[in-house]
Structures are given as C-alpha cells and as structure tokens.
Amino acid sequence: MSKAALLIVDAQNDFCPGGKLPVKDCDKIISNINISIDKFKKVNLPIIASRDWHPADSRHFKEFGGDWPTHCVRNSKGAEFHPLLNLPDNVIVISKGTRIDEDSYSAFEGQDDKGLSLSEVIKKLRVKKLFICGLATDYCVKSSALDALKAGLEVYLLLDCVEAVDINKGDGEKAIEEMAARGVKKIETREVVF
Ligand code: VGL
Ligand code: ZN
Q1: Which of 16, 72, 133, 140 is catalytic?
Q2: 39 with 171: CB under 8 angstroms?
Q3: How far apart are CA 48 and CA 39, in angstroms?
Q4: pLDDT of 175-191, one tens digit each?
Q5: pTM (2 decimals)?
Q6: Torsion over CA of 57, 59, 64 and 68, rounded to 10 degrees?
Q7: Atom 8 of ligand 1 has which residue's CA nearest to it?
Q8: Which ligand has its closest atom nearest to the C-alpha of 106?
Q9: Theoretical Cys-Cys bridge with 50: which of 43, 81, 107, 149, CB 3.0 to 4.6 Å?
Q10: Whose CA is nearest to atom 6 of ligand 1?
C-alpha cells in the first residue's frame, strides 16, 4: 500500500471563535481532527501541521493593502495552534506566509524548521497519499489540496474536519466541489482505515 500522511492546515487560534478570522463550529472540527490524528499516530504515519505565520506588517493584511484583517502574526497568541489540538511530539510544522510580500494560502508554499519545502518533506518521507483537513476550506485548504494534486499525490479531503470562512455564503461548498472536480477524493474520518 502506498504511504499516507495527514496534513492539518492552519488549525490556529485566529481561525477559531475569539480570533481575527473565525470559522463556525471550530471546536467540533478540532475534535474531529483529533480523531484523525489518533488514527495516523497509531500506525506511525507522518502528521504535518501547517501554520499561517505572517510578519506584523504583511501586505496580506488590509492595513498594508491586502485583503484580510490582521491575523496569525507570528509568535502571537492568535498564531498558536488551537489549545485542544492534539499534535504529536514528532509533528512536522510547516510555516507559510512568512515574507512581507506573500499570501501563501497553500501549505506547499511553506517550509519546515530546516527550510525544506513541503514537497521536499513529502518526497523524503515517500508519501504518495495526502489526507487534508483544517482551516479554511475556501482558502488554505483548497489551495493546498490543488497543489498536492499538482505534486502528483493522491489527495483525500476529510469533509468532517474542514470549515470555511465563507466571506460569501456557499464559498466553502463551492471550494469542495472545485477540489472534487479536479480529482480530490472526499472522505469522512470514520472511513479512514489502515
Ligand atoms: C487563510 C485567509 C487568510 C486560511 C489564511 O488559512 O485559509 N485564509 N489567510
Ligand atoms: Zn493568512
């Protein structure tokens, strides 16, 4: 069987209630993600967590000409992973949006702590199947899933482990349909078995 990994996209405080760009039902999503984490942990498959890690003066922010309220400023409380997210000690953290002039919606635009890109990390681990979950469906999850397809991976979207910002109503649903049309496979946590 080809090797799988779990990619948790931007499960950070600022995308949850009380944060700067909250999705609804964050707690439910985090608890579903934790169930997925356990499944990968049990069989020793890699778990990768991306994080939005912006400089305070990023051009991604409205204040500096971008589209978004200030969020996930690196080293701030809002940029921390959600406190209930049960990441294993050996999680591979991918930081993205770290330069002043980049949005980096996709985790494939980020690097690990040694400066390796996500594609390099995945190649090194010989991962062929990527299970994607996290926040937000209509931006970073979608962008990461489409880049994963471009990288030649078999891509699964964990439907019960994603939520959209839905700036316009229905954005999340549209994003899911777009991913599916390009070849992303839709799956629920309970269907993940190794
Ligand atoms: C995201 C908007 C801005 C995301 C990040 O993680 O989906 N969305 N920055
Ligand atoms: Zn961002």
Answers
A1: 140
A2: no
A3: 14
A4: 999 999 999 999 999 99
A5: 0.98
A6: -100
A7: 139
A8: 1
A9: 107
A10: 140
Which ligand has the shortest distance to the CA of 22?
1
The structure tokens listed for 47 are 């778990």
User: Residue 183 belongs to a domain with what CATH number?
Assistant: 3.40.50.850
Contacts of 123 by beta carbon, 8 Å cutoff, 6+ apart: none
Q: Which residues line ligand 1 (CB under 6 A)?
A: 10, 52, 68, 135-136, 139-140
Point out the catalytic residue in the list 14, 16, 52, 96.
96
pLDDT score, position 24: 87
**Residue 82 is part of which domain span?**
3-191
Question: What confidence tens digit (pLDDT) does each residue in 118-157 have?
Answer: 999 999 999 999 999 999 999 999 999 999 999 999 999 9
- Number of domains into which the chain is organized: 1
How far does the centroid of ligand 2 lie from the alpha carbon of residue 44, in Å?
30
Ligand 1 probe mutation, 8, 9, 10, most atoms within 8 A of CB: 10
**126 phi and psi angles, rounded to 5 deg:** 60, 35
The yes-or-no verdict on residue 1 having pLDDT over 80 is no
Question: Strand 47-52's sheet: what is its strand order?
Answer: 92-96, 47-52, 4-9, 129-135, 154-163, 185-187
Q: What is the pLDDT of residues 35-59, one digit of tens each?
A: 999 999 999 999 999 999 999 999 9
**96 included as an active-site residue:** yes
